[in-house]
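Hi C.,

You asked whether I'd gotten around to modeling the 111-residue construct. I have! Everything is below, sequence then structure, no commentary in between.
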Amino acid sequence: MTSRRRAGVWAFVTTGLVLAAALAVLVAPRASSEPDGLAKVAIEQGFDGHARPSATADGPTADYSVDGVADQGLSTGLAGLLGVVVTFVVGAGLVRAARRAAQRRAAAPSG
């Protein structure tokens, strides 16, 4: 990959990461508190009381908030930002692992 193309890829990734982080921090706290589609259907059909707690219900970012942050808007924004960062790190790790595997296959003698 040429350095010019590599710079273009990094600009694209950086722009996407900054945009996702901005949306998570600035827009997510202003999202509707009304039930989403699945919760609304559960309420309408009368089976919302049968829900069991999620395995991650006690997690540090459960319910779109960060434990220990009193301001709900800030808490939601931080949870969104943490989600963006974790998703980026996992995705970058997968891309790196795939590239290394491809390089090993390319370097292996054929035959």
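If it helps when you're writing up: The chain is about 65% helix and 0% strand.

Thanks,
B.
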